[in-house]
Design goal:
By secondary structure, the protein is an all-beta fold. It contains no helices and 34 strands. Helix content is 0%, strand content 52%. It has a six-stranded antiparallel beta sheet, with no helix packed on it. It has a six-stranded antiparallel beta sheet with strand order 24-33-26-27-28-29, with no helix packed on it. The protein has a five-stranded mixed beta sheet with strand order 4-3-2-1-20, with no helix packed on it. Bound molecules: beta-D-fructofuranose. The site of beta-D-fructofuranose has 12 residues, from strand 1, strand 5, strand 9 and strand 13. Beta-D-fructofuranose binds next to strand 1, strand 5, strand 9 and strand 13. This is Glycoside hydrolase family 32 protein.
């Protein structure tokens, strides 16, 4: 057996120890990004759910804090948080603005929605004892709340997992909730639905779009869990989809994404970089679970209709150290113990093939290629992943037909590879537990000459 490489991420968030899953309560407030998350303080598999906590001034450098919402009469399942500027909740005192978290209190026979609040910008949280929404159901969870200015009320998207339905509720004060409408079942329904969100984005042309997203498990595009979305309209009561369901991510490891509340001018989200299919067996005993890179989410109006796009947050450029530029085929040596970012652009008129092979001392670990209108990512079986059902395999997505420059943007960390292509229209997020550290990348162009090409490699 090979000695296991160090899989601890260099530029992705993971706590020092133990298990994490979904991001929760994402919030930007007074210069700090708050990242709460499903956390088991006592082990490296799912259980004893609390909200763990990290904060960052820039979405890049994270600091871990003590548990924010400990388990008590129930486990603390997923949910969201808002700044209640007008003190609609009445939790504020002496002019202090409450942060309000809305989460699912989980017991084996009931999931209902509870509030907790903080009057010191998230340092200490107080539980509000009574549930604010109890449908007397075993599966009813993951409230995501936002302020809807046109109707001057809070809106909550919450999921009925077994029914594959998202219910929208409205409230003037975060305490009293009235049902507005039900969305689904529609789209992919091959697994239970989890972690819904309804949000609006404004793109650089000033056009606004509504996005409905929900995760499902199993039934994802390549087995295990996945995430789908619709674009459409929201009138304050009902979301009406104007597109079919599409996948948000064509990799295997992007789940339970939610957006940060309180980021005016842009929409940012991140996800748990994992798949329920094998999350509890990934080869990092003692600490399991990592967050994806934060991404700016927007919608572009393509000739074929509107489409969701994702781009790594621009703050990540602060990590760029040494850069290397080249064009044409190349064989690049990577530095062990460093993160790597690759940016490739080439002439969009060309039906060219680009292929990147990620190689370690023991051989080929992964392939990313654009060929014949398809983006393809291959993860090869490894010594340390052979017990992970569904790890090895190939992920495919249609490459968007866009005029002008084509682009690929990749982030390689110690145990992950994120790929953004076609102006962020196609994304693949994948854990990557290579046999040995990747020390070489071969960049190849096949079939045709690449024109106008420009490649940059940055150490991070
Ligand atoms: C999604 C999920 C949520 C739930 C939480 C429990 O991964 O199953 O539906 O609230 O994780 O940890």
């Amino acid at each position: 057996t090979l000695k296991r490489p160090n899989y601890r991420p260099l530029f992705h968030y993971a706590p020092a120890a133990n298990w994490i899953n979904d991001p929760n309560g994402l919030l930007y407030h007074r210069g700090l990004y708050h990242l709460y998350y499903q956390y088991n303080p006592h082990g490296d598999t799912h259980g004893n759910m609390n909200w763990g906590k990290a904060t960052s001034p820039d979405l890049v450098h994270w600091k871990e804090h003590d548990v924010a919402l400990p388990q008590h009469a129930h486990e603390i399942f997923s949910g969201s948080a808002v700044v209640d500027w007008r003190n609609t909740s009445g939790f504020g005192r002496d002019g202090m603005i409450p942060l309000v978290a809305c989460y699912t209190g989980h017991t084996p026979h009931n999931q209902s929605q509870f509030l907790a609040y903080s009057l010191d910008d998230g340092e200490r949280w107080t539980y509000h004892p009574e549930p604010v929404l109890d449908a007397q159901k075993t599966d009813f969870r993951d409230p995501k709340v936002f302020w809807h200015q046109p109707t001057e009320q809070w809106i909550m998207a919450i999921v009925h997992p077994v029914e594959r339905q998202i219910e929208l509720f409205g409230s003037p004060n975060l305490h009293d909730w009235t049902s507005l409408s039900v969305f689904g079942p529609v789209g992919a329904t091959g697994g239970i639905w989890e972690v819904p969100e309804l949000f609006s984005v404004v793109n650089e042309h000033g056009e606004s779009h509504w996005v409905m997203k929900v995760d499902l498990n199993p039934g994802g595009p390549f087995g295990g869990s996945g995430v789908q979305y619709w674009l459409g309209e929201f009138d304050g009561v009902t979301f009406s989809a104007r597109t079919p369901a599409r996948w948000v991510d064509h990799g295997k490891d992007f789940y339970a994404a939610i957006t940060f509340s309180g980021t005016p001018g842009r929409t940012v989200w991140l996800a748990w970089m994992n798949n329920w299919q094998y999350a509890q067996q990934v080869p990092t005993p003692g600490q399991r679970g990592t967050m994806s890179l934060p991404r700016v989410v927007t919608v572009q109006n393509d000739p074929e209709g509107p489409v969701l796009t994702q781009a790594p947050v621009p703050e990540l450029t602060a990590l760029r150290q040494q850069e290397e530029n080249w064009s044409g085929e190349a064989c690049l040596n990577l530095q062990a113990g460093q993160g790597h970012e690759f940016r490739l652009t080439w002439d969009g008129q060309d039906a060219a093939t680009v292929r990147l092979k990620f190689i370690s001392a023991t051989g080929l670990e992964a392939i990313v290629e654009v060929r014949e209108g398809i983006l393809r990512l291959v993860r090869t079986a490894t010594e340390h992943t052979k017990n992970l059902d569904g790890y090895a395999g190939e992920h495919l997505a249609r490459w968007p037909e866009i005029a002008g420059m084509q682009d690929l943007h990749l982030f390689l960390d110690s145990s992950s590879l994120e790929v953004f292509g076609g102006g962020g229209r196609v994304v693949m997020t994948n854990l990557l537990y290579s046999n040995q550290p990747i020390t070489e990348v071969e960049v190849q162009s096949i079939d045709t000459e690449l024109n106008g090409q420009h490649w940059t490699l940055s150490l991070m």
